[in-house]
Each structure stands twice: as C-alpha cells, then as structure tokens.
Amino acid sequence: MSISLKNRTINRELSWLSFNHRVLQESQDDSVPLIERLRFLGIFSNNLDEFFRVRVATIKRIESISKKKELIGDKTAAQVLEEIQDEVVRQKEQFAVIYRKILDELKTHNIEIVKENELNQEQEGFVENYYRAKVSPLLVPIMLKNLDEFPYLRDKSIFLAVKMTTPKKNKPGTSKQYALIEVPSDLTPRFVVLPEANGKKFIMFLDDVIRFNLNDIFGIFEYRSLEAYTIKFTRDAELDLDDDVSQGFYEKMKKGVKRRTKGQPVRFIYDSDMPMDLLRYLCDELGVDEDDNIIPGGRYHNSKDFMKFPNVGSSELEWEKINGSDHYLMQKEGSILSAVDKNDIILHYPYQHFRGFVHFLREAAIHPKVKEIKVSLYRVAKRSRVINALVSAAKNGKQVTAVVELKARFDEEANLEWSKVLQDAGVKVIFGIQDMKIHCKLAVVTQVIKGKENQQAVISTGNFNESTSKIYSDIALFTTHQEICEEVDKVFAFIEKPYLNFRFKHLLVAPAAMRRNYIMKLNREIKNAKEGKEAYAFIKMNSLVDETLIRKLYQASMAGVKIRLLVRGICSLMPGIKGLSENIEIHSIIGRYLEHSRVFIFANNGKEEIFISSADWMERNLDFRVEVSVAIYDEIVRKEIRDFMELQWQDNVKARIVEKNQPNEYVAREEGQPKVRAQMDIYKLIKKQQTEIKKKFESA
What we know:
polyphosphate kinase like, globular, Endonuclease, Chain A, 19 helices, nine-stranded mixed sheet, 23% strand, 700 residues, single chain, alpha/beta, 3 domains, 28 strands
C-alpha cells in the first residue's frame, strides 16, 4: 500500500529548528544551574552556526539550480529559506530575552558582565594592562579606505567593524573612515575576569576589552567620534574536492579543507545598533543582500563561546560533578579481554567509564596472544588515548588497521593529522570509500590460542572518543560471539574492498541491506497485528527523515502496531493523526547529556528482537554511509537495554512531546506521580543492575 506523504511530513530543516528550540528551553529552565543555563545558550548558538554552514548552505545550492522545481518536502527551497529566516529571528529574540534574565540572576549572585564604559579606576588599569600584554599583539587592524580588494572575512570568527569621523583638511565638516579588527577569541579567552569590587565579581567580553582600547589603535587619526560594532560571517561548509585522478584521496582532502574557508556566504549577522551607512558599505563590499540571510543581532555575536563561560561564583551554579562507574565484570576479572571472553558486556556512556574501551585496546596492544587489531575512527579526542593504544599495539608488533574517515565534517583536518601519526607508527591506515562515509563504530581483536583464532568485537552507537563520551549518551557492546565477530571482520573487508559481496546474519549493514531489513521487521509486525498477535516497535534514534521508513511506520500504525519513538533531533513524521498515525507516540529528551544512542526493539510475536546501531533513519545513513546495527542476544544485556529504554520513556521532567505543530510541550506529570528524570535516574538503574549481576555471578 503506497501512502502519500504530501502534507504528512514535517520539513526536516524546520524540525531541526524545533529541536534547537528545545535546547533553548533548557536555558530558561530554573531547575538547571545558572551557569549551565548560560552554557545552553552557547550550545544553541553553536548548533545554529553549524545549521547555517551545512543545511542552509545546501538549500541555497538547491535554490540556485532551480527556483521552483526542487522541493524540500512540500515546499520550494525559497519558501523553506524564508521560513528558516522567520523562525531564526523569532528564536534570536527569545534568546535575547533569556540572556537578559540570566544576567539579572547572575547579579543576585554578585556576578556582573560589564561593558567598557562601566569600569572603576582599578579595573580600567587592569584592562589597559591586560590589553597590552595579552590582546594587542594578536590584533591586525585593517583600514578599508583605498583597498584594491575587500579583506577576506574568516568563517566562524567575529570582527569589530569600526567607524571613525575625522575633520576634513582645510574644509568644514567631517569625513568617514571604516576599519575592521578580528577579535582573536580562538587565541585568547573570550571572557576576561576583572578585579573584584565591594564583594562583587566582574567579567568582560574580549570585544569590550578591545573597544576600551580603541584609542590605542586609532589615536593617530585625531577622530571626533569612534564606534565599533560586532559582525559575523558564516560560509558554506561543503568540501569541494578536485577531480584530478592523479591525486590521492588524502591530498584531495587536504586541498578541500583549505578551500572550505572560502565558501559562499550563507549568513551575515550584525549589531542592530550599527549606523545604516556602515551596514550598507559592508553589505556592498561583502556582496550580500536580503537573500543571504542578513540577520540583525545584539551587541555580541559568537554566543557559542558561552559554552566556556567561567564560573567565578559558588559550585551550585554548575552541574554537580558525577563520576561514572566501571562495569562489575571488567573489574572482577582484572583482564578485560578475559571478561569479554566469558560474557557479553555493554557500557552505557557517560554513566559508565569510557576507559573500559581504552583498557580493552591497551591490553590487546601488549597481550602475547593478540595478533591483530582493527578499528574504525570517525571522531577522536584531541588528546586521544585510543590513538595512543593503537600506536602502542603497532610498536608491540601487532597488525593494526585503522579506518580513518577523512570526511567527518569539521574533523577533517584533525583526522588528516591523526592518520599521519598512525602511519608513522606503522599502523595500516585505510581512508575508506571516496563517495561514502564510514560512520560505523567497530573494533575487532584477534587472538591466536592453541593455533585457532578467537575474536572479540566492540560495536558502539557512538565514537571512540573519550571527550564526547563524557557528555554523549551512548551504548557499546563488547562480545566474543564468534559469528558476530566474523561479520564485523567482514565489514572491514568490505571497506577495504567494496566490490566484494558479503552476507550478514547478525548485523544489519548499510548501504547494502539495513533499510530493507528494517522494512521486513516492520512488515512482520504489521502481519502479526492483523492476525491479532502482539505487535509493537520501540525505537530510539537521533533523527527520523527517511521517507520509505516513515511510510512504513504510518502503514504499521494503520495496521494497529503500537509504536513508541524516542527522537532527539529531526523528526519528519507526524504522530497522532487520525487514520494515519494515531498509534505512534514520540518523545524527545534534551538535558544534561546529548542523547546519541540508537536502539531498535521489535515485538516479533513474543520473541523480541533488540538491536543497537550507529545509524539514524536518514537517507544519508542508509544509502551513503557504511553503518552497522547489531543484534543483542545475551539475556542480561537485553534486560539492561530494555530497562534503559523504559526509563527514558517514563521521563516526565526533560522529555518533550513531538507533535505536528512542534509546540515542544513537556510530557505531563500527573498529580502525585513521582518525577522521573531519566538522565539522572539511570545512575541508580545501573547501580541496581550491577548489584544484580554481582549477585548472579557470586552465587554461580
């Protein structure tokens, strides 16, 4: 049965903006510590930057090809761009209101953000000295008059656009001069802590430190007035790769990363107090117009820097530090390889330590029976212990293969550097497939025991990255199930030689058959529902966009299959529509941690199937990436995942209801019902589960 999606899906871009609105909601939630609320404003702003660099840039390219024919859902590209502009302006206005409220609340804690004209004498001296010692050497002021070519504005940076009026020589009146100064916030902190006064603590934007010292830069011009306004320019982040067949993929990526900095403009933000003559001059010189998302803003831009806002107050203004735990079985055995050899184990990050995976690699690196290690790397930490473990393995004579995805967006440059580090250590580095991203998160260790190979595999929903594992909620399966391990090895073989054809029984692998397998499982649920058997699907993912699977979910709902979805971000499916999707409910959890794990549970007429995966239900994941879902067989692990999913569904503190009109209302809590905050309550759940595991194995 074919189901038309016309007027039955939510545009993915507008759905993404609804997700970012949920992030913005966190900044106005009084239950969130005050400094963390300010940092949520930074997360909101950082998300929006990436949205413009990637998604808005893509739509603008579509629009440039065809004004009318290319559709985004039920709308033309031009219509979507207009709606994006309107919604972004609305959210920015809400941002400004929230920001002002947070500033007022900071004052109640004796913390103030001050401007250059609000300093006392001691602070003025401090700012002058700080500027001369820390800031002045980093500045490159550019006078714009008589330049042959307007200077290039670096993406993601902020600039002070300066306007001076100076007396005309030998004539009445004044003349105008313009200048640009890049604010060096990537080289020195954006927020400067000033000396205390009267029990109060003061913080100043780096922008205002420069404003306070403008005379130090422009004093030679004998100006009558001097003004500075912050601007920001966002560019298309798409990589442009050469078609030169004589170049290797590594060299093409290096050139592409360099060229990205000169991408086409997609957004220009300016201080709304900027005088019109300066604004017109900048727009003319930059070649931007109303079609380039010109957005009026406040005094400060690059609010993403709020993610690093310093806490100069009490500890209660930040999240309480919570330490993750180690898995009981990994501690019990001492040897992680031995622990995995006896039992399947899952780790829930950040609730359990990522160091379990690092120790797994470190032990394999020196274990006398380990012959080979293979791992796929998409994003790694800046000071990666994972990389160190792989280097150690290579130096200990192990055969080490690392698949490094050079096209991991915004990590391309880092991955180019890491690949060289690995190659220099003797690691075999594979750059994957040029027209396809390697997004699966896999590792396999091969031991030779009494002449026979024994393998252990790790399949994760998130990156092998110790930094993000502290804030991303992910699941990693450690298993010695030999058929699963062999199939993981087959995925590595496919990456190296994509012309080979493999069959998989325990893994669902994209792009070959993942979508088809999910359709088969939903068809089975539809059949069971029609026959009066138990039929349901309980699914967690980051994004739901794929039209084929949305149709299938609608079809399943119409057949009576009960469907619960936990979708953090983009969701194009419309739940609760009579005759179409009344059997579908969708929740979205936004909180302290970024929900990142993907879990798929199908009733299967009482023989429930559970999978974890690296893949969302998006065309890019299912058709243009190598992705893996793995079946979970171990009963203890299955129960852990089941309990985790049910706890998330019961959340009535941080969960929002996803609906057609995207109001982002919180899941209602009935009178007398206890609060359930899944991201915090899971610590208790894991402690309980670990106690049960300990009892089970101690009594065995």
